[in-house]
Amino acid sequence: MSVAVLGAGAFGTALAITIARGGTPVTLWARSATHAEEMANTRQNSRRLPGVELPENVTVTAEIGAMSANTLLLAIPMQQIAGFLAKNGHRFASGAIVACCKGVDLETGLGPTATISAACPGAVSAILTGPSFAIDIARGLPTALTLACRDEAAARRLQSTLSTETLRLYRTTDTTGAELGGALKNVIAIACGVTIGAGLGESARAAVMTRGFAEMQRLARQLGAQPETLSGLSGFGDLALTCTSEKSRNFSFGLALGRAETFDAGKTVEGAATARAVARLARQNVAEMPITSVVASVLENRITIREAVEALLSRPLKEE
Ligand SMILES: NC(=O)C1=CN([C@@H]2O[C@H](COP(=O)(O)OP(=O)(O)OC[C@H]3O[C@@H](n4cnc5c(N)ncnc54)[C@H](OP(=O)(O)O)[C@@H]3O)[C@@H](O)[C@H]2O)C=CC1
Ligand SMILES: O=C(CO)COP(=O)(O)O
C-alpha cells in the first residue's frame, strides 16, 4: 500500500509524519515549488508545522504528476477541494481518496466525500475526521479519529493502512454523520469563542456547546446520519476539543470577534464558510439551527454580537 498526501498544510504534514513513522513511505505534495524545496532541504515544514522533523521516508514534491499512490489523503481546505479536483481529478481516477478536511462547500452545499465522488466517480471516497490538533499528531501524542467510507471493505482497508501506534482510527460507513459532525462543530466553536471573548462567561459557553450539539444532531438526523456517529469522535469528541481550546483556529477566531480584535486572515477557519452554507439549509427549513444562523448573520455583518445574544435569549421557551 502506498500513501500520498495532497496539501502540505499543518494537518497534511502531521499525517504524513505519523504514517511515515509507522514504516509506510509517504509522498507529500505542496502546491508551491519553493515550499516543497524548503521542506526537502530543511526536513521541516516551518511555514505550517514548525518544530517537527520529517522522517526520512517522507518524500516532498511539488510535481502533481508524481502523485500515483493507491491511497491519497486530500488535506486542503474544504472550499478549495472542488476547484482542485476540477483541475487535477483526472489524475486520480481510481484508488481511494480520503478527505482530510471539515466543512460544507459554499457553492454546492456538498460535503467532502460527495465533492470527491462528483469529480472522481471511479475513486473510493472516504473521510478522516475527529478530534486532533495537527501538532499533537505530529508529536506522537495519542489521538483517536474516525475513518468513514460507505464501502465497508474499503473502510477496513483504510483503517488498517492509516492507523499508527499513536493514531487510533475507528471506522464507520456513515460518511454523512462523520462529515457533518466535523463541519458543524467548527461553527459552534466560533460561537463559543465569541461567548468567551465577549465576556459572557463559561456557563454561557457550556450552554452554547450543549444547544449547539442539539442542533448538530437535529440537522444530521434530518440528512440521514446515524445518531451514534454524532455522539462519537467526529461529532461530540471534536466539539469538546474545538470549543474549549485556544489551539483551535475556529475558537480563536470567535474569541477575537468577541473581543473586537483582528484575526490573521491567512489562517484556515473552516467554520466561517460552513456557517453560511448551513444557515442556508436552516432558511430552507431543513432543520432549526438558531446558533449557526446567528453566527452566519454576525459574519455577514447583518447583526451585532449583542443582537445575536438577544436573539438567542428571546427565543420561545421550550422542552429540552
Ligand atoms: N490543523 C489541524 O489541527 C487540523 C486540521 N484539520 C482540517 O484539515 C484541513 C486543512 O487544514 P490545515 O492543514 O490545518 O490548514 P493549513 O492552513 O495549515 O494548510 C492548508 C494547506 O492547503 C494548501 N492549499 C490551499 N488551497 C489550495 C489549493 N487550491 N490547491 C492546493 N493546495 C491548497 C495550502 O497551501 P499553501 O501553504 O501554499 O498556502 C496549505 O498547505 C481543514 O479542513 C482543517 O479543518 C483537521 C484536523 C486537525
Ligand atoms: O479540527 C480541528 C481539531 O479537531 C482543528 O481545529 P481548528 O481548525 O479550529 O484549528
Automatic annotation (TrEMBL):
PROSITE patterns per UniProt: NAD_G3PDH (PS00957)
Question: Is Lipid biosynthesis among this UniProt entry's keywords?
Answer: yes
Q: In which pathway does it act?
A: Membrane lipid metabolism; glycerophospholipid metabolism
Active-site positions, per UniProt? K185
Cell compartments where the protein resides: Cytoplasm
Instruction: Please identify the protein, giving its name as recorded.
Output: Glycerol-3-phosphate dehydrogenase [NAD(P)+]
Indicate which residues the UniProt annotation says bind substrate. K102, R249, N250
According to its UniProt record, where is this protein mainly located? cytoplasm
Domain spans labelled Glycerol-3-phosphate dehydrogenase NAD-dependent C-terminal: 174-310
From which residue to which does the signal peptide run? none
Q: Where does NAD(+) bind?
A: G7, A8, G9, A10, F11, G12, A134, R249, K267
GO biological process: one example: glycerol-3-phosphate biosynthetic process
Q: What class of enzyme is it?
A: oxidoreductase
Please give the InterPro entries that the UniProt record associates with this protein: 6-PGluconate_DH-like_C_sf (IPR008927), 6PGD_dom2 (IPR013328), G3P_DH_NAD-dep (IPR006168), G3P_DH_NAD-dep_C (IPR006109), G3P_DH_NAD-dep_N (IPR011128), NAD(P)-bd_dom_sf (IPR036291)
Lineage, top-rank taxon, reads Bacteria
The record's gene field reads gpsA
Transmembrane residue ranges: none
- Where sn-glycerol 3-phosphate is bound, by residue? K102, G130, S132, K185, D238, S248, R249, N250
Query: Binding residues for NADPH, per the UniProt record?
Result: F11, R31, K102, A134, R249, E270
Function, as annotated, reads: Catalyzes the reduction of the glycolytic intermediate dihydroxyacetone phosphate (DHAP) to sn-glycerol 3-phosphate (G3P), the key precursor for phospholipid synthesis.
What organism, scientifically named, is this protein from?
Answer: Pseudoruegeria aquimaris
